[in-house]
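thread from #wetlab-drylab

HS: before we spend reagent money on co-crystallization trials with magnesium ion, can we at least see a predicted complex? here's what I'd submit
DV: go for it
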Amino acid sequence: MATDDASATTTDQLTFTNPVTRYPTISPPEQQQDEPGLESQIEPQADLGEQSYRGTGRLEGRKALVTGADSGIGAAVAIAFAREGADVAITYLPSEERDAQHVAEVIRDAGSTAVTIPGDLTDPAFCQEVVERAAAELAGLDILVNNAGKQVAVESLEELPDDQLEQTYQANVLAMFRITKAALKHLPPGSTIINTTSIEAYKPAPILLDYASTKAAINNFTKGLAQQLAPKGIRVNAVAPGPVWTPLQTSGGQPPEKLPQFGQSTPLGRAGQPTEMAPAYVFLASPESSFVIGETLNANGGMPTP
Ligand code: NAD
Ligand code: MG
């Protein structure tokens, strides 16, 4: 195991600790995987919370659907939700079966039900199917996390392929509309919807024009829908991560030559680990945040946001 590996960390999220040194400042070697990338192939390994996330019963009996939850932030959220007492359905692309089975095993080890739903969210019919399967197999639904996302860096607008532009909007924005729309009939009052946006929504990198603009759309959708659904007792919020070490970054999300410095420009001086995002989602999913609506919770190592 390389010294930068965070996957074996056992210090839990509730232990008093210095955030600068809670995880190492990683300097990932240049690496490139085909999209969407596999968690098991990234170097160093990331912390999804398998050893480090401690549940405190905050989501007892809840039923959650988390998209893109085979790896990265979604996987860490799914694991945390299970440890907090929720049953969890996860979606992922078929090529990610191996990562998904690992997450499902951790969910089941927590004593929760895990439902695994492979498929492509750029397909509108699959967006419907995901919701129907999750609601049927979990016998209901009261947490929806729209987290799946596509990010491919391109140097200039002239070089941005039209099919990439369409697929990024399909996966990041249209799927979120479709899944959320399909989920509404299942969500009782008290339910929560959480969308994964990004620091890129406010501070777009010049090489991420398509991706960054989808994240601005997600923030906007969150604030609009939050007002529409609040009277029904359904709360909608977003989480905006900063740089987090996930397979997305190694499968086109960043140019490989930029990976050795990944995340080092945050005020904390390091990239985030996926499990460091999970408490934000747990807070927004749990009834304790009952008066928090239309909010974007930034978890980015200290980068200023509007
Ligand atoms: P990740 O690669 O681990 O997760 C993204 C997942 O999205 C993939 O595992 C895949 O299952 C899913 N996905 C992508 N395209 C899909 C498609 N067409 N159909 C179905 N599923 C699809 O990477 P991550 O960084 O954990 O990303 C999760 C979310 O976090 C994304 O929305 C991303 O934009 C956001 N985010 C990440 C960072 C970061 O630094 N890693 C920062 C801000 C926001
Ligand atoms: Mg993945």
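DV: Residues 36-37, 68, 70-74, 92-93, 96, 120-122, 147-151, 171, 196, 198, 241, 243-244, 246-249 surround nicotinamide-adenine-dinucleotide (ligand 1) (CB under 6 Å).
HS: ok that's useful, forwarding to the group
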